[in-house]
Amino acid sequence: MREHAGVPAAKGEIQQVRQIEEQEAMDLAADWADISQGLRKDLGHQLYTQWIKPIQLGSFCKETGTLDLFLPTEFSANWVQDRFHDRLSLAWKIARGEVRHVRIQVHPGRRKLSDIDLRGQDGFGHRAANDSPGLAMGSIGEHGFTSSVGLDPSLTFAAFVTGTTNVLAFNAAERMAKTETPQFSPLYLKAATGQGKTHLLHAIGHSYLQAHPRARIFYCSAERFMIEFVQALRSNEMMEFKTRLRGFDLLLVDDIQFIIGKASAQEELLYTIDALLAEGKRLVFAADRAPQALDGVEPRLLSRLSMGLVADIQPADIELRRSILESKLTRFAPLSVPGDVIEFLARTINRNVRELVGGLNKLIAYAQLTGQEVSLQLAEEQLTDILSANRRRITIDEIQRTVCQFYRVDRSEMSSKRRARAVVRPRQVAMYLAKVLTPRSYPEIGRKFGGRDHSTVIHAVRLIEDLRKRDADMDGDVRSLLRQLES
């Protein structure tokens, strides 16, 4: 009886231990969430996303006070260890006093280069594009090079919306992918985050493969290139690495700004560029800054990167942002998105195209999941974070000054009682812009225009809205003023 009675008791103890372990894991996760949020604010979005976000919590040893943090690659683990170890240790000691040591290492599940079977493949873990049509091959372990069949199928030239700010880069990218030999190589695409440079890289790969079905295409990030270089170096496989890399017909390298440090890796990329150019191969690089602004890159490599064409992609203007949103709406038919919502998003989310499209997707997804209609009010309620991050604070004083300069009227006319058409219309335009570009209420706007009643402001806003639909000159004036104020 005692033995039988002891069985449930033992099970209860095991269950209790498991509950304690689960609670400790949840507490650790909660602490890490708080620490991560603080690091995101301190480091900024780009550094946080690149280095801190991939960190996974490991085990915590109470006896030694050691907490393990895992990263997916040796390169990223070394980088975080060198640059963020002290900051991470301090943050954990503040959050949880029992943590005395923070150990940063590669995730134990990572596969090494020597563990991969490269037989029948192109040497980077993929078959050549012509060897197995339609078969999507994997990468080397968790972090190998991406082959041509790994290109994002949605990122094509047909899906890229052009405007005055990106037409040069688009035309250069199209020419790089054509059958005839390009006039320039390498092509260097320079753009801030989320403006379309990665899209163009993938589009070049797709188009080139259509024109050259048996071509070998190599697409990766600069960081990934460095990871594979270091692994090949440590595995004594440098000759194989060089031979495979130089066997590609088109080289596409993204985020070249991360090719910092590791002089030997930079030197190998330099020699690869020279070898491919000598054989008439095509090279395309993308970065968030001009070649001359890259930090920690040796002069010879900078010279090679800038010897072809450096095509700059400027931030999308209001017309391009509007066109991008309208092009995306075809995916959501028959869902209706009012024109004032599109105009609101295009004007307000102006930092980069990725946020703009993400805002539209989030708004439509919310409307579909909740059964609500897409409206301006819904957009303002559900996109608070995106909108607040993008809004530049434009003052009514700034609007009045800009409108007066545009129409060549004296600033005092914004508050005067004069009813002459030459001053009334600019005043009404300024009221309209104040309502569109600022969060001020109708009464607040009225007070800034000589203490006018809110009904006068409402009349002005509705009048200008109506005139924009009927009068091309008025619409052109307002568009020009919006560009000036939002630039």
TrEMBL record:
Q: From the Swiss-Prot or TrEMBL record, what is one GO molecular function term?
A: DNA replication origin binding
List, for all copies, the residue spans of the domain called Chromosomal replication initiator DnaA C-terminal: 395-464
- Which compartment or compartments is the protein found in? Cytoplasm
Give positions of region: Domain IV, binds dsDNA: 368-487
Q: Which GO terms describe its cellular component?
A: cytoplasm; plasma membrane
Ranges for region Domain I, interacts with DnaA modulators: 1-114
Comment field on protein domains: Domain I is involved in oligomerization and binding regulators, domain II is flexibile and of varying length in different bacteria, domain III forms the AAA+ region, while domain IV binds dsDNA.
**Quaternary structure and interacting proteins, as annotated:** Oligomerizes as a right-handed, spiral filament on DNA at oriC.
Please explain the role this protein plays, according to its UniProt record.
Plays an essential role in the initiation and regulation of chromosomal replication. ATP-DnaA binds to the origin of replication (oriC) to initiate formation of the DNA replication initiation complex once per cell cycle. Binds the DnaA box (a 9 base pair repeat at the origin) and separates the double-stranded (ds)DNA. Forms a right-handed helical filament on oriC DNA; dsDNA binds to the exterior of the filament while single-stranded (ss)DNA is stabiized in the filament's interior.
Identify this protein by name: Chromosomal replication initiator protein DnaA
The record lists the organism as Croceibacterium soli
Name of the gene this protein is made from: dnaA
